[in-house]
């Protein structure tokens, strides 16, 4: 099976749907590494060849400090046999546990982080290397300059940025071409539409939306009991506003029923339609532990919303209660907190 190929920026071409590897680590519940490997193989078999990970995803090893890297090691098991099928993306910049919120973007750190990721992934080159979060007291140009050295040395093919503002993106592109911006973007998380998405379109930079299914909430399958057992419990959007936000889910379900599609497919189809409306290449990266869900999600690539259905989904954002920054209390952790 194959999916259409989408050109992001800087000549990078990827499958129309990506896979968010974070779901294969213990973030939204306990995971089985062997099942994760099977899911990744199923993704590649379904044509989902754009695989996204980060050095901070996974469980820190006992007696070690710094990013965990175990998610990269898991993905390496698949890359060992199928590297030539994959457009591989990983990230650096969150130093230590994600819960600490410590970021680094200095040259020495960037270079060492890249070497560590290459080793864990078992590859010679990373197709898309993201700055996961920026070090706010360091000019972004300095970090991007360090990343550009990795491109010149052949260790990285393309550069990306995650959760940057429009101004930060513009500054970064004066140093080196940027292939993609990764940020949360979905029916219920639309703050980047104010500045970031238009700027990306203007600069020829692609968008890679993470959590396009609202961390599972928009599928209508996530329960309050499950939320209570995961990191999602830290977010009022998922906890205290769980019942109120069912109104958003209901709109997605209604449209899914009209199209004989899954709620996940509808949520992804909206992201594609929104990207097209802004004129920006858009490749969402939903994550799942289920091989069956990967195949179902791939069906969204060919799903078309009517204008009326798109309009109803657009207005669903008005029903949302609670902000999207669930990982940290600091507003500046996401781009909208710095604009």
Automatic annotation (TrEMBL):
Signal peptide: none annotated. Pfam families: Aldo_ket_red. SUPFAM superfamilies: NAD(P)-linked oxidoreductase (SSF51430). Residues 17-316 form the NADP-dependent oxidoreductase domain. It comes from the Bacteria. The keyword Oxidoreductase applies. Keywords: Oxidoreductase. This is Aldo/keto reductase. It comes from Actinomycetospora termitidis.
């Amino acid at each position: 099976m194959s999916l259409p190929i989408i050109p992001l920026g800087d000549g990078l071409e990827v499958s129309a749907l990506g896979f968010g590897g974070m779901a294969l680590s213990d973030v939204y519940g306990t995971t089985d590494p062997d099942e994760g490997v099977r899911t990744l193989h199923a993704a590649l078999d379904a044509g989902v060849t754009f695989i996204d990970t980060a050095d901070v995803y996974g469980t820190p090893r006992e007696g070690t400090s710094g990013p965990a890297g175990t998610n990269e090691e898991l993905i390496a098991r698949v890359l060992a046999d199928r590297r030539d099928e994959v457009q591989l993306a990983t990230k650096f910049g969150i130093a230590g546990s994600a819960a600490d919120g410590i970021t680094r973007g200095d040259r020495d750190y960037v270079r060492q982080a890249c070497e560590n990721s290459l080793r864990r992934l078992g590859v010679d080159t990373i197709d898309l290397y993201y700055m996961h979060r920026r070090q706010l007291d360091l000019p972004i140009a300095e970090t991007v300059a360090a990343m550009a050295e990795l491109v010149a040395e052949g260790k990285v093919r393309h550069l990306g940025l995650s959760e940057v503002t429009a101004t930060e993106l513009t500054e970064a592109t004066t140093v080196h071409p940027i292939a993609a911006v990764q940020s949360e973007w979905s029916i219920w998380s639309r703050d980047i539409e104010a500045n970031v998405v238009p700027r990306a379109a203007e600069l020829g930079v692609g968008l890679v939306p993470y959590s396009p299914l609202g961390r599972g909430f928009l599928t209508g399958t996530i329960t309050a009991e499950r939320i209570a057992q995961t990191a999602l419990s830290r977010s009022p959007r998922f906890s205290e506003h769980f019942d109120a936000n069912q109104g958003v889910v209901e709109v997605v379900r209604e449209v899914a029923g009209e199209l004989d599609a899954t709620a996940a497919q509808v949520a992804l189809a909206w992201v594609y339609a929104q990207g097209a409306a802004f004129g920006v290449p858009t490749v969402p990266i939903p994550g799942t532990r289920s091989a069956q869900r990967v195949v179902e999600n791939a069906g969204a690539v060919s799903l078309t919303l009517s204008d009326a259905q798109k309009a109803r989904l657009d207005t669903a954002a008005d029903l949302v209660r609670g902000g999207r920054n669930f990982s940290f209390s600091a507003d500046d952790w996401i781009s909208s907190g710095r604009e």
